Amino acid sequence: MALKKGFYTALGTPLDENGNLVEASLRKHINQQIDAGASGLLLMGSMGIEAFIKLDAYKDIVRVGAEENNGRLPFFVGAMDTSIVKVMEKIDAMKGLKIDGVVLTAPFYGAANDETATTWFTTIADKSPFPIYLYDLAVAVKYKLTMPVMDTLIKHPNIKGIKTADWELIHAIGRKYPDANFECLYSGLDSFDYANMMGIDKNLDGMFACTPKNGRKMYDCINAGDFKGARKYLDNILLLRDTMLKYRLMSCFTICMNLLGCEGNFHQDYILMPTDEGVAKMKETMQAIGEL
Known about the structure:
About 45% of the residues lie in helices and about 10% in strands. By secondary structure, the chain is α/β, with parallel strands linked by helices. The radius of gyration is 18 Å and the shape is globular.
């Protein structure tokens, strides 16, 4: 499946106080992104707190997400975990659904090396009925995908792409394997405008989840060749992100999503809510950048 250029949104996951899906909220969130012109959706990535979701809720989230998207956009699902059998348990929950790919980091908790990462990805790719997309997330899993490992993984017929913030890795893959059936989605949010100027035109990030209006306007500018205008809207997204970082990133994400009309908790259950000052600042910033 060839992916079109544009922004790909790592969706948030709305949960209630017991960790169960808030179904209407997820459906609304998906439609907000489709209406905003997203090119594809990632359900339960990092912003979607996949690693913190209980298994019975995971199954509901996949079912509802796939049902609501209904093939309208390329639809990917995160299945990150600590063992192959646990990943396969999650992939089993996707059977019969309209899923375009499973997104995987290297295993976390037990740090991987080149040998174990290669075994991990190729074994799961052998077993999975869905295409596998690599998630290069060294900050969380303490392992960085490198070109020598990619030389093996990119040749696997069921490994179809990578999400990475490593500009140089994307460049190396493109130069060495220009004709490979392999997609590179760039996740270096701060340089999305320059990446598009250099032809890296598939960009994936969780901040699009709470900035659908700015995401659309930024890519409207990019498509028109107006990179100065694109920078303006990217700066809006970065302003919101940097403000969220000052007042507890993930629980601020909950506040932003709630302000967009998507109910539920979008953060891990052990993270405190922002202070009253933080809540007020989220609303003020969302208004300033035109999301409200």
